[in-house]
Structures are given as C-alpha cells and as structure tokens.
Amino acid sequence: MYEQKTKVTDQSVIEFIEQVESPKKRADAYRLLDLFRDTTGYEAKMWGPSMIGFGKYHYVYASGHEGDAPLVGFSPRKAKISLYFATGDPDREDLLQQFGKHTAGKACVYINKLDDVDEQILQQLITQSVRFLQELYPEQK
Q1: CA–CA distance from 92 to each of 47, 53, 55, 135 (Å)?
Q2: Which tens digits make up the pLDDT trace of 77-123?
Q3: Which domains does the chain have, with CATH numbers?
C-alpha cells in the first residue's frame, strides 16, 4: 500500500528557515512566510523535511489514491525557491505571465529571489490556488 511521504511534521518552521545558508534566501523565506500567512489566514506548518505549507485539503483521485496536501506552500531550496500552487488550475497561466522572472513545472513555480517577481501577483496566485482547491475538494464533514 502506498505511504504518503509528504506529511505535516512537528518540525519548527523558524528552525528550518534558520538553517537556510544564504542570508538573502533566508530573508526571502521570512518575507514569504509573512506573505503566505497573511494572504491565506493559515499558520505555517512543515510538510516533510523541507516544505512550508499553509492550510490543508484532502484529495481523492479516480484511481482511489488519496491523501492530504497543503493548499499552498514554498521551500527555500539551495538552487531556487520553490512555490507550490494547485495543479490543473486553468487560470494560473494568465497570472504567471505578469509574475516576473520564473520557471514553472506542473505544480511548482521556481524563482531565484523575491525581488524578481511581483508580490501582488504572488498574492493573487496564492488566493487563486486556495480558492481553486477548496472548490475542487470541498471540506468533508
């Protein structure tokens, strides 16, 4: 049976950020922490060893595979900062065109530093991703 690797942990978000080697990347991580928290209204939690996530949703795929994931999040990795948004959101591309210097994968958007992107567009990406996932996976009682 599949065991989900990325789960909420008790690891301290602040201790994790303090371990980031680059002072600039560490400062960006603190700014992102405030920005994601203020935009979502959720407190930050560590998901696995290196992802800072906000909120949570439960997904169930057609295959029957299910699990929990953060609504949005980020990780200040050594090479780039990874921003985690919803996969499958058809409106994400429009915002990314206005976002600034980045590269994008299926769920991740990668930036070198926060100064490279428009923070207002980032807030819109966060809000849109949370809304998209909450509509796709309404909270189950």
Answers
A1: 23, 19, 19, 15
A2: 999 999 999 988 888 999 999 999 999 988 899 999 999 999 999 99
A3: 13-136 (3.90.1150.200)
Spatial distance between the Cα atoms of 54 and 43, rounded to a whole number of angstroms: 6
Retrieve residue 8's tokens. Answer: 């909420």
Separation between Cα atoms, residue 47 and residue 82, nearest integer Å: 14
Tokens for 15, please give them.
Answer: 């201790």
Higher pLDDT, residue 68 or 111: 111
Kindly tell me if the per-residue pLDDT of 40 is higher than 90. Answer: yes
* Cα–Cα distance for residue pair 49/13, rounded to 1 Å: 10
The DSSP-derived string for 26-77 is HHHHHHHHHHHHHHH-PPEEEETTTEEEES-EEEE-TTS-EEEE-SEEEEE-
Between CA 88 and CA 118 the distance in angstroms is: 22
| Residue 14: pLDDT over 50 | yes
